[in-house]
Each structure stands twice: as structure tokens, then as C-alpha cells.
Amino acid sequence: MEKKISLANLPTKIEKLERISRRLGVEIYVKRDDQTGTELSGNKIRKLEYGLYEAIEQGCDTLITCGGIQSNHCRATAAAGVRLGMKTILYLRSSERQAVEGNYFLDELLGAEVRLISPSDYAYRRQEIMEAAAREVEEKGGKAYLIPEGASNAIGTMGYFAAFDEILEQEKQLDLAFDTLVCAVGSGGTYSGLHFGNVLSGSGKKVIGVPICNDGDHFRERAMEIWKDFSSLLQSDEGMKKEDMLLLDGYVGRGYALNTPEEMDFVLSISREEGIIFDSVYTGKAFRGLVHALEENHELFRDAKRILFIHTGGLFGLFAKKFEFDMRMEK
Ligand SMILES: Cc1ncc(COP(=O)(O)O)c(C=O)c1O
Q: What CATH class has 14-42+152-329?
């Protein structure tokens, strides 16, 4: 196992969602990875703990990363940078001037240097642009550490590989076993880490990812790419198979960070039914997928009796959606 620094509040709590469990006739629990911290909240900090150890080891003084305008990963990186005494440069994808709100507001508050880039530069040139920024840092006598989108490289994936062990340990303490784990899939690292943990431990659970952009085949390919580097870090010769990766398609909706009225209403109704808040970009779409699949007796969930949903965070991004919620709440 790779080394890490400790930034997240771990282990995170596991709670049962009583009302939804009763309504659906299946036990549904939530792992509160939205509570890994405040500034450092959400799934990204588990991944960053590993990458940032490497950054310190390499003597870096600047972090460079990228994401959408409301990226939770970028906000967590900005906060971690301050904690470690490093400067942070963020490339945020934006097609127009954006209101400084939600995570973007927190990036500014934390003193990150925000550079907005167009969607096409983001799609085709972001690596090149970040590398140029790293050279800029070096010319000034510094040293930069580049973190890819969502920290979903092999080193970042260690975070959820370790989280899988944390879940196994909690099962012993709670004296119960989950047959199914479910998480949102955005850049692939969370799902890959959990899936690799499941395979390598021989636990035999179902680990089901719900893509909130792209589709299941895209993320099967992505997980196989991550596995190439991940298996050499772990020195594992396990054969990872694409066919074993379970992804529930059909819940991307209008696209990344866009919502349908049904998705907004779902987040609203779960808040009022259980007192738990999901964000509408990641966890709301994924949890909606889980609830729908159970209601429809989807084959992936046919034998599921006790499910653990990983609440990967995203609360701050919800503030940028206030206007859309206002319209739903007026109804
Ligand atoms: C709140 C939240 N949940 C889930 C995800 C998806 O995780 P991953 O990028 O590891 O697939 C992300 C980031 O993309 C996120 O910010």
C-alpha cells in the first residue's frame, strides 16, 4: 500500500436510511463520505491524501489541477494546498463569465489562483495547458505537482481501495454485511478503487457505479486504464476483467452538471423524507438511479438485501443551483 498524509476525518459514519428502507423493502445504508471534513469534504480528499504525500516527497510547492466550475475536487485541493503551505493553481472549465458562488467562491476564499478555460481547451488541451503552467512555476524557481481531473489516477484510486478495507472493518464492528455497494461515477477513481478492493479481497460483493456523465462502457475502459498503473503500484498480477465491472446506465439525464425537473424534485423529496441532502450533480443522480432500479426490480439489484450507498459529498455545489430549486419549491 502506498503512503499517505492524513487530512480526512476517517472512518466516516455508516447510517441507515430508515424511511426509504421501509418504503422500498430493502435495507439501505449510507456511508457519510460527505463528512470527511468541511473545507476538505467529500470523496476527493481520500484520493488527495495519497497524491499529496507524493507531492511533499517530491519537494513541490505548487499544486495544479483542473475541473468544472463547481468542481468539488478543485475546492478540496485548494483547501489542502493551504493546509500544506502550497500555492494552488486551478483550471476551471467555463464557457462564460461565471457567478462567484458555491465551490468557485470557496476556491477564491481559500486564495487559489483560478484560471478559467474554455470547454474546448478543457476537452482537448488541458494536460498541455497544465504542463505549461508547471514550466512557468519552474522558471520562477518553484516545483509543481500536477493532479489530473478528479484525482482519478492510480495514486488517487488508492483512496477508495483503502476505503473498501475501511468498510470491511466497519462491517465487523457493526456485525452486519453489505451485499451491494453503490456510488456515483464522474471521473472513475472512486468506483475503480472500490471495485479493485472488492476483487482483490475476494469479498464477493456487488460494487455498482452510476455514471453521471459518459456511460458504463466509457468507465469500464477508464477503470482498465487505471488498473494498468494501479496494479504495478501494488505489484499485483490479478487479471482485472471489464465484464466484471457493474455500471448502471440511464441516469446522466441532460448531461454533466445539468438537471431535469425530475432530478431536482428527487433531491428535494429525499431531503424532506430522510433529512439527508444529496447534490444534484453527483449523489442525487446516483441515488435516484439506485431508487429507480430497486423500484423496477432491475436485474443488477435483484438479490440485494443490504445496500451501502457512498455519499461522496458535493454539498457546496448545490448552492450554485439555488435558482433552479427556488422554482421547484414555489410549486
Ligand atoms: C460529490 C462527488 N461525488 C462523486 C464524484 C465522482 O467520483 P469520481 O470522480 O471518483 O468518479 C465526484 C467527482 O467527480 C464528486 O465531486
A: alpha beta
